[in-house]
Amino acid sequence: LLFSATISSDIKGLARRQMQDPVEVAVTNQVDPSKLKQVYYDVSKNMKLSLLTHLLKHEQSGLVIVFCNTRRTTDFVVKNLQSNKVSAIAIHGGLTQNKRAKTIELFNDAKAGVLICTDVASRGMHIDNVSHVYNYEIPKDPKDYVHRIGRTARAGGAGKAINLLSDYDHDNFSRV
User: Fold this and answer.
1) Short-list 163, 165, 92, 101, CA closest to 132
2) I want to staple 138 with a disulfide (CB 3.0 to 4.6 A). Which of 24, 112, 166, 169 is the partner?
3) Could you give the angle at which helices 71-83 and 48-58 cross, rounded to 10 degrees?
């Protein structure tokens, strides 16, 4: 079985080659575009963290996911948010599976309100009740953007995707 919100032509080819009589099952879109608000802020790179901190402290929100492109940035952001008294935890591929599972459990139980992560959390993990998704960095692949923002506005609920752009994000954002 193969499950994905998006299936590329490469993956479809792989399925045809490796599977006997594969069947594709599609469901209606789980994210209602009318209930997903997308905004962006264009700021200098050295102001991103300050803006993120400000928004997290002042934006009315429930559970929040902040996506970064690298483990290093993820660790940098979580460390700085924690020093600014934001209840944030990190998850990325550099953690053991056990540690990632415990982190997701803490987040799902709302023991930490902000999850800072790489794209490891954009697919295949069960995370409910996310009100806001922040893109601290814009992914290179537009499909990754779709997976990221699809973490909010699920099952008829409303959500907000907030993109923090600086000069180095403009190329990636123009592909979205």
Assistant:
1) 163
2) 169
3) 50
